[in-house]
Amino acid sequence: MVTGISNNSRQDSKFKKIDLCIRDTNMLNVRKMAKLLNIDVIGCPYQEQNDKGIIYRVNERPSTTTDYRYLVVANNLEQLISSSFQPNLVVVKDFEKLKSFIRKGKYRSRIALEVLISDIRYQEGSKVGKWFREITDLYRFSKRSGCQFILSSGANSVWEMVSAQCFESIMKFCKIPPRTYWEDLEEWLGLQDRPRISHA
Question: Could you say which residues of the chain have pLDDT below 50?
Fold first, then answer.
């Protein structure tokens, strides 16, 4: 039995563990903490010093190709109303409003719907329970509608960063297969990179 667990652990380690929303800008500390928490890929606000090992969150698409990875982020649903604004992901605050918006065909498929764990960090029990139910529902909705579901920490400091094990515990509680989630997310990120990286 011990051998079987060890084999599964080695298989799971092949998949990159990803946290696309860490707001702390001290990259040295973030990288150290990410290593301790078994997080392989991190996403942070864009900074002047580019790091090819980071996926940057930007508010608008750069006018030229870049030598770094980035995602254009919509922080609210209202931004999607503009036909000229084409983000890679939208941060979900109002679950029902977002689902209604996409059901009406007002936005393209394959956009990512990102949920932040930081949104419930200081909430009372009843709201946390509702959040878990909504996560389960949103994941299923994402699968049906062709969107990419993303679960991120939303950490404002390294002390709020979330371990890969904690991410997977939340996924399992919400009936999200961790292995499928990591595979799908890595594939989706690869698709976002192709048209814009100048030195891939």
Answer: 1-12, 197-200
pLDDT at 105: 63
Phi–psi pair at 74, nearest 5 degrees: -100, 120
Count of structural domains, the chain: 1
Q: Compute the distance between CA of residue 190 and CA of residue 77 in angstroms, rounded to an integer.
A: 24
Beta partners for 155? Answer: 22
Q: What is the pTM (predicted TM-score) of this model?
A: 0.86
- Condensed to tens digits (0 to 9), the pLDDT of residues 71-91 reads 999 988 777 776 677 889 999
Q: By residue range, what is the domain housing residue 145?
A: 17-193
* SS3 of 5-64: HHHHHHHHCCCCCEECCECCCCHHHHHHHHHHCCCCEEEEECCCCCCCCEEEEECCCCCC
Query: Does 8 fall in a domain?
Result: no
So what's the pLDDT on residue 106? Answer: 60
* Listed residue (38, 32, 1) closest to 19, CA to CA: 38
Single-letter code of the amino acid located at 91: V
Here the CATH number for the domain that contains residue 150 is 3.20.20.140
Residue 72 is inside which H or E element, if any? Answer: strand 69-74
Residue with structure tokens 């079987």?
4
**Closest to 187 measured CA to CA, from 112, 91, 135:** 112
- Residue with the two structure tokens 């922080």: 75
